[in-house]
Amino acid sequence: MITRLAAALAARNGLRRYGLAVLLGVFASGALEPLNLVPLLVVAFTGLVWLLDGVHNRRAAFALGWCFGFGFFAAGLHWIVFPLLVDAGRFAWMIPFALILLPGGLALFVGAATWAATALGWYGAMRILALAVTWTLAEWLRGHILTGFPWNLIGYAWIEVAPVLQGAALMGVYGLTFLTVFAAAAPAALARRAADDDRATALPIAAAVLVFGAIAFYGATLLRVPEPVAGDALRLRIVQANIAQKLKWEAGEREANLLRHVQLSRSPGVETRDLVIWPETASTFTVNEGAAVTRVIASAVDGSARLLTGAPRVEGSGPGFRAFNSLVAINGQAQILATYDKHHLVPFGEYLPLRALLGRLGIERIVQGSSVDFSPGAGVRTVRLDGVPGFSPLICYEAIFPHGVVDARDRPAWLLSLTNDAWFGPAAGPAQHLAMARMRAVEEGLPLVRAANTGISAVVDSLGRVQHRLDTGVRGVIDAALPAARPAPLYARFGDLIVFTMLALGMVALGVRRWWP
Question: Does the active-site annotation cover 396?
Fold first, then answer.
C-alpha cells in the first residue's frame, strides 16, 4: 500500500503536483503554534519526498519546494494582515500583496532546499538525509540574510513536548530542525526497497526513533531534577494593560493609557514587589531625566523598587536628532538608572529600507506615531542594576534570533522580553512569538520574563516551562518570583558551531555512501 501511494504521488504532474505540494506545506504549518499537531510533519515531509521522487530536473524540484514553502508560510503567517488593518484606510490595500509576496519570498528558501537536495542526486533513504541537510541550511540562511527572519522554524514544533524540547539546550532550534525533518521524512524510505538489503528501508525510521528516544530520555531526566532555587529571588510584577493598537498612539488616549499602567502597577501587593515591568512602548511619550512624564511613571513604585518600561527615546535636536525604541529603568525618585536601545529593528515597521527609493514610490512605514525611522542600538548587552540580577533585554522580535540574545562575555541571570503583540492579532501571531521566546530560555539555560501590551505576558523557567501567564485580551498583573538560571548549556557555549558540525557530518555520510556503496 505504501509503495502504491508513493508511486501515485511521484506520478503526479502539472498543477496537481504543485497544488498537492501547497497543501502539504499547509499541513506542515499545522505542527507549529497555535495547533501544535506534530504528526502532521510526517504527512508533509514524507509526501514531499515522494513528490520529489517524480521530479526529473532541478528546475521542477525548485518549483515543487517553492509551492510547499508557499503553503507553509501562507498558512503560518496569515496574521500578517492584522498590522495592515490597524490603519486600514492607509494600508488595507497592501493585504493581497502581503499575503502573496511575503510567503512567496520566504518560499524561495524552501525551493533552494529542494533544488539542492535534488542536485545531490540521491533517492530513497539518502534523499531523506539530503533534504534534512539542505532544509536546515536554508532555514539558517533565512534567519540571517537581509537582517534575517527566523520565524516558524520547523524545530519549534516541539515547544509543547517538554522532554524533546530540552534538545534545544544541546543543539538549538536549528539542530532540532535538522533531526525533525529527517525523522518526519523517514517513512518515505519504506516505499523503496534496496536491491541487496530490504532492511535498508527501515533504517531511517530506526535512526529517528533512536535519536529522538535519546533526546526524550535526556529531557525527561532533566525535567525530573528539582528546579534550582534562587537564594533571594527577585519579586516581580508584570503589567499587561491590554490597550488596543488603534488607541495606543491616539492623541486623546495617550495620557490615559499611561495612567492605566500606573494604576495597574499600584494595585494591591505592589509594596511586596522589587521590580515592576511594563511592555514595549508602554509609554508613548519620550522619557527623559526630569521630564514630567518620567515623574508620572516613577509614581508607580515606592521605596527601593524599580520600574522597567518600554518607551521611545531621542538623542539630539533639530534635523539631526535620533530616535530609539528603548527600555528605560526608573526608580521612585524619577531617576533614570539605565537605558537599552533596540538594535535589531523591524523592516517597514521601525525603519523603511531603501528609503530614498521606496519613499519616492509612496511606500511608508506600517506604524503609528512618528514617521521618523528608529536608529539601531549598539547591540546585545547585559543590564545591571543594584539589587537586580543582570538581565539581557530583548525588545519585540529580538527574541526570535537563536544564539543572538545574550552577551557571551557578560552572561546575564535572566532574559527580559518587552513586546507589543497587539500588531499580531489575537491568536496565532502572539502564540508563535511566545514559543520562540521560550525556545531561547531553553537554549540559554536562563529564565524568561515577558511583558506584552495585549498578551501573552509570561514567566518561563530555564527549561521552557510557563510558570505564570496572562493570555491575549486580558488586563491584569503577574506577581511572581524570578526563577533561577542553570549553568550555560552546550548550545549557549558553542552556538551554531554545533549545527554546522551536524550538517557537515550529514554531508560526510552522503559522500561516504556515494563512494563506498
Answer: yes
